[in-house]
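User: Can you fold this complex?
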Amino acid sequence: MARQAKVGVLGASGYTGSELVRMLLRHPRVEIALLTADRRAGQEMREVFPQFSPFELPKLVSIEGLDWVSLGLDLVFCALPHATTQNVIKELLDKAPSVKVVDLSADFRLSDTAAYAKWYGHEHHAPELQKAAVYGLVEVHRRAIKKARLVANPGCYTTCAQLPLVPLIKEKAIELGEIVVDAKSGMTGAGRSAKEAMLFSEVSEGFHAYGVGHHRHMAELDQEFSAAAGREVVVTFTPHLVPMNRGILSTIYVRGRRGRTPADLHAILSKTYAKEPFVHVLPFGETPQTRHVRGSNMTFIGVASDRIAGRAIVISALDNLVKGASGQAIQNMNLVLGFPETLGIEQVALFP
Amino acid sequence: MARQAKVGVLGASGYTGSELVRMLLRHPRVEIALLTADRRAGQEMREVFPQFSPFELPKLVSIEGLDWVSLGLDLVFCALPHATTQNVIKELLDKAPSVKVVDLSADFRLSDTAAYAKWYGHEHHAPELQKAAVYGLVEVHRRAIKKARLVANPGCYTTCAQLPLVPLIKEKAIELGEIVVDAKSGMTGAGRSAKEAMLFSEVSEGFHAYGVGHHRHMAELDQEFSAAAGREVVVTFTPHLVPMNRGILSTIYVRGRRGRTPADLHAILSKTYAKEPFVHVLPFGETPQTRHVRGSNMTFIGVASDRIAGRAIVISALDNLVKGASGQAIQNMNLVLGFPETLGIEQVALFP
Amino acid sequence: MARQAKVGVLGASGYTGSELVRMLLRHPRVEIALLTADRRAGQEMREVFPQFSPFELPKLVSIEGLDWVSLGLDLVFCALPHATTQNVIKELLDKAPSVKVVDLSADFRLSDTAAYAKWYGHEHHAPELQKAAVYGLVEVHRRAIKKARLVANPGCYTTCAQLPLVPLIKEKAIELGEIVVDAKSGMTGAGRSAKEAMLFSEVSEGFHAYGVGHHRHMAELDQEFSAAAGREVVVTFTPHLVPMNRGILSTIYVRGRRGRTPADLHAILSKTYAKEPFVHVLPFGETPQTRHVRGSNMTFIGVASDRIAGRAIVISALDNLVKGASGQAIQNMNLVLGFPETLGIEQVALFP
Amino acid sequence: MARQAKVGVLGASGYTGSELVRMLLRHPRVEIALLTADRRAGQEMREVFPQFSPFELPKLVSIEGLDWVSLGLDLVFCALPHATTQNVIKELLDKAPSVKVVDLSADFRLSDTAAYAKWYGHEHHAPELQKAAVYGLVEVHRRAIKKARLVANPGCYTTCAQLPLVPLIKEKAIELGEIVVDAKSGMTGAGRSAKEAMLFSEVSEGFHAYGVGHHRHMAELDQEFSAAAGREVVVTFTPHLVPMNRGILSTIYVRGRRGRTPADLHAILSKTYAKEPFVHVLPFGETPQTRHVRGSNMTFIGVASDRIAGRAIVISALDNLVKGASGQAIQNMNLVLGFPETLGIEQVALFP
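Assistant: Here's the predicted assembly.
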């Protein structure tokens, strides 16, 4: 039997952290060797997430003063808050040259330092790494990821928008000036911090948009769509909150270019994803529901005709904590460590 | 004290029926004199809706064989399924010339018999009434409603889309060829019939679009938008289901015409609705949540700038069972019977 | 027209505060003259609760430095956190001798200073008021409340348990040593403070008990049940959290005393509450649902036989924010100010 | 590699059917060879449960006219409605002598034909099988299950009540005349049939008890508790519905016998389940939440002291579709076919 890879999770007390642990516990090639959570240091994982009570896991420790070399980790998942991440990863990669990193924050997703400074309001702390990082949308950048030392795991909203749009943009099949992405997310996308606006009684039995006109995820979309198009692309994007735990659904309005029909767009997506294990294109005219990908690493995509000639409605759905975060992170780990890509992330969706 | 108006509710066992009863029970000028529900005839209202247990209400009866004349009703709310409605109202208006009707079905909303036949797949059974009916969106057609004998209460989706869009269209402030309405509704919009797709376990913890590209509500939008524009207008409209009971939120994407900015659009809406009791325009840049209108007859509207110059995002929210159905029906009744418009529908929203 | 009573709400930024405002806005004899919220002082109520956007309300102010005399209030609702309340009310009653107070906190519910010190871990700050306060369970203490200057509004769990149990205890109809109250509450019972355990993602799609064996509400039950029995009564009480906003349901297990059957227990409750406007006893064998009292001041009670002879299952349901808090507080205000008891709290339940 | 066992699922269009398919798809020793669903015969599984779209599965067929011999199945899961089951299994076992059956209905759980007739209102159609069937609560009847040909998979409520109570009863540690089981279940426990009472809008945002005093699951509890005690035991049991998809939580009130303290009861349960893979006893005083076992085959049990001396509150939680149905069924299959007991059902709980 092959040696188990030793992995660590930095920031294990949040939802992306617990999702990593959920899947890594059953990954056949991995040993969980390190769990950090600064505010919960000294506690057992079961005190933070009781679902892990039956399992043996390392105690939560602080990230301060860890000896990266003696830990002997093969790979580190970084699920820390924005900005903290930059310094931690810089130090980690400096001190432990053989370790690899999959970062779940937004810190290394923008390769352009100017774009980063514009959207985040300060200079990046590790600009040399910013350029070295590989953007971890597997279906688009698989080859580069396999050789990467630092993978920037994509955001949940942006994964959900890119998987249907990047192939259409690459094929020059849609008008670039009229793309509208109306996105809806479950509450886990907002994380586990205790804020009034995220209380059950503030969220259940209601629906609303937020960040209208100026959501940070737009920078990531701009970068990837522009790269796909070979010229600048700016889309309209509005996120909404759904009173549910998991799931993102993006309703995308596009106009076919040069006579491309909705059926043509469907054909492009079907062909692109025919052999992908984690992207499934539904028959033309059918559209997906978030509940049917819950808990799985799957993305479902559907295409339908609008009643206005030439316009199509493309809908994609994924679980924001799995394909939108921790599942995709393990998919990236599998590539980086040379494991089969689907290992440990093959769970079938939990519905109902 | 003025005589109480005697009113009846046809189809009292559905959600719009129970909402009518909820508000009419506390309406100071109304007596509930008739409740029908064919499949539940002979039962007490409390057996169908236990919340009415403490109240005295007429027993549910069948609509068959009612003697409309001797009932002596002043007004009838018709909350029956599609198509049935046409025959019932025709007979009722024939036999009881002094009664007035507010119809909550879709049967009399389309004044064009050809449009009706196209969308519903059969000829209208009462085409002469179809033309006489007044479309009951109070804020647009108030004057005509006051004189009407038959009011066609608007649909919930369409009320939510028309209140923000009709003034913008009338003012020629937006491009008519690029309007996208992405609408999200709570489950009560689908009624109370026992269908697998509406079970709790099929609906909770998930989100999806339906009727993509071909929802019947579009006919109603076409009619009213075209009337407002003075020429044919066709919009893109996609409805979605939210795992909540009440509420519709419409995210509407528009482009200003002839240099109109998002702030200009906001100004038009603010001015239009400055004195309306049931439409409230939020300060520029703020957007509404469905939960803040729950149980009330209020519509909230917000306008924000898109990051793409010239484009605005207009968001409206209402309770589909109140302003989207029964509350607006009582608002129409108040006009038709000469009562103050807000009587009996002044409840403040129930949040949380 | 009679002069409007001037009322204030201390602590208007919490859920019981917003519920008071919701109902007082439509109360025909009341003017809202003061709203306080220390952390939100200087803001408009609409910034804290957007559902009030369409209404004119006093700006939120700090409780510090208020001149109680010049405010000229007739009555103050106190919806402040535990302990703070004692000092505020003491000062208020000292300085403004004509004002009356309905306190929604737990601070004045226990008349025994020793019991208070035991359950709350410190001496009461206003023990002389503690004795003067009247316990505001209207259906039990109506006569005393009418003459009170300070009414201690009962807790939500305890109102739900007392309404069915007090009459049975008074009638010596049940064994006092075997009472089990298994209570389930919606999330608004936990208030609006930003705690991790109250986040949507921690609460939805799950169910659990809390405070097992040692919940503070027990002190209030002990006091009232013992007073009703004329001797010490201690019951088993377990609270649970339901993923819903509003509602408490208590499933109560009792054994009839001296041959009393479940039907006998039902008869006692039916007789006791025959003329009460806000307590409704269902037919024998039927049991209530929280959704059918949502948003109303109503309590529904049902009694059924257990299959074990002599044992009965009594179930009561109310809306924790209305009859369990703010509705009952207005009911108390109506008594204290000499208004009709049901004024302003007659809304019919909102279902669905 | 060992030959894959060929299994069939009768009644694959319900929730226990889809759960079986979810887990069997990833079971390393099983091939899904047959899926039946009479009303959906001829359809693909993906039309009934879209989450299976990416997977190859046999088309749904009718159970009528199947040739059990040529199908060559090793084991059949029967997830059919009550009563139908008896005839189907009788025929199946007659015709295909080598096949084994795990039945998820209630039909073979009662070994006493008189008890069956009493609770179900008719004679059993296969009384000889009724006696041969082994009751499949693995932790209690493991040895007998391994040799069984027909396993009657226990009910969800009853599994949740038996796992904590059977050891306490066997040890004679609690008074048998005072056991109260207050049980709360998510909606999937009610199945997938289209009934008004199960609609989203009837279920969400509310809580209620049902079947008060006379729920059929009681027969199963009587049988197993009486067997454990060696004399007749009758408990009080009240089921409730929680607005969530999955999970059962049982709050159980017991009195220690002969001086047994709550801590003693905890010690008995801890010892009993120390080595069980799917039952986890929490530290004394901690109580479980349904969300922490969601999607897993785990049962969590907690014990706390009541404030009344000698009384304890025991709380158990499981996922009604997994340990309460399909997960336990696969656990039974593993025993019957000689596989490791945990194979294919080791998924970690999905929270949030």
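Residues 156-170 of chain B form the longest helix (15 residues). Chain B touches chain A through 49 residues (CB under 8 Å).
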